[in-house]
Amino acid sequence: METKALESKREGRPLRGRVAVVTGSTSGIGLGIARALAAAGADIVVNGLGGRAEIDRLCERLADENGVKAVYDDADLMDKVEARKLIVRSTWSFGKVDILVNNAGVQHVSQIESFPEEKWDSILALNLSAAFHTTKACFAAMKAAGFGRVINIASAHGLVASPFKSAYVAAKHGLVGLTKAAALEGAEFGVTCNAICPGYVWTPLVERQIDDTAAARGLTREGVIRDVLLAAQPTKRFAEVEENGALAAFLASDAGASITGAALPIDGGWTAH
User: Fold this and answer.
1) Number of C-alpha atoms within 13 angstroms, CB side, residue 151?
2) Distance between CA atoms of residues 223 and 103, nearest Å
3) Among candidates 89, 61, 64, 60, which has minimal Cα distance to 74?
4) Which of 72, 94, 164, 168 is catalytic?
5) What does DSSP say about strands 148-153 and 70-73: parallel, antiparallel, or unpaired?
6) What is the tens place of the pLDDT at every residue in 9-45?
7) What is the DSSP string of 153-205?
8) Quick one: which of 16, 81, 131, 203 has the most CB atoms within 10 Å?
9) CATH H-level superfamily of 13-199+240-263
């Protein structure tokens, strides 16, 4: 028997009955989004890296705390076949995919002249091409159903550039372009596509960048945080993963039906410069 608290959580939730696939959702922004969508009532397909026992516990918490279903899919999104199979398997499990959040990403910091070509290829594959393949795999079904939400987690670097991040900036600019094209194609069918463009959010990905950036620029960790990462954000603070989750949940709901083709910054004013 459900507790009164769980019954209360089930009532009036805007995503109840929806199914969401969130890539890169075992940590960081992706996990924050998965939690927000589950809290709004969506069943969740988790995808990402980590130990299987830990991920199983994560899925159990998402399910138990929100009264939804949560399953894990270990698709390697660097492989376009696996990216498509993620959607196929999710559809087998739940009968449909209503919401797709393309969040998985990777970063490398280096000068262009010494930027490893294999890093360029892997960043473009995961940060951009994977989003195309997952979107392609679910787009026709969304159009046929008359409802779909594709949310691409781009970056402030999808709107502006920074040095030493050529592949990441190129991929995120490309993701914003893909967002606009998909929005136009889905507009008459009830399918929206938007890009969330975070500035610096305190996540494992950003934390790993600090030492790389310190080495590339000859700075201390504290100097990177103060003079590089937060220098561009007028608020002078890292954004929270929960802020990104809240925006994703809104865009995924019926209230977001008229927002499509947008690149929405959560960047503390960075791109207002």
Assistant:
1) 33
2) 28
3) 89
4) 168
5) unpaired
6) 456 799 999 999 999 999 999 999 999 999 999 999 9
7) E--GGGTS--TT-HHHHHHHHHHHHHHHHHHHHHGGGTEEEEEEEE--B-SHH
8) 131
9) NAD(P)-binding Rossmann-like Domain (3.40.50.720)
- Residue 162 — φ and ψ, nearest 5°? -135, 155
SS3 149: strand
Q: pTM of the entire structure?
A: 0.92
What are the backbone dihedrals phi and psi of residue 253, each rounded to the nearest 5 degrees, phi first? -85, 175
Q: What is the mean pLDDT of residues 48-56?
A: 97
List beta partners, residue 71.
Answer: 45
Domain range summary for the chain, segments of one domain joined by +: 13-199+240-263, 202-238
Closest CA to 102 of 65, 52, 156, 138: 138
Per the annotation, the verdict on 72 as an active-site residue is no
Question: Residue 85: pLDDT above 80?
Answer: yes
The two three-digit tokens of residue 184, written as one number: 């136009």
Task: Estimate the share of the chain in helix, then strand, then coil, as percent rounded to the nearest 5.
Answer: 55, 15, 30
Report the pLDDT value the prediction gives residue 121, as an integer from 0 to 100.
98
The answer to whether the CB of 235 falls within 8 A of the CB of 135 is: no
> What is the identity of the amino acid at 108?
H
Q: What is the mean pLDDT of residues 54-82?
A: 98
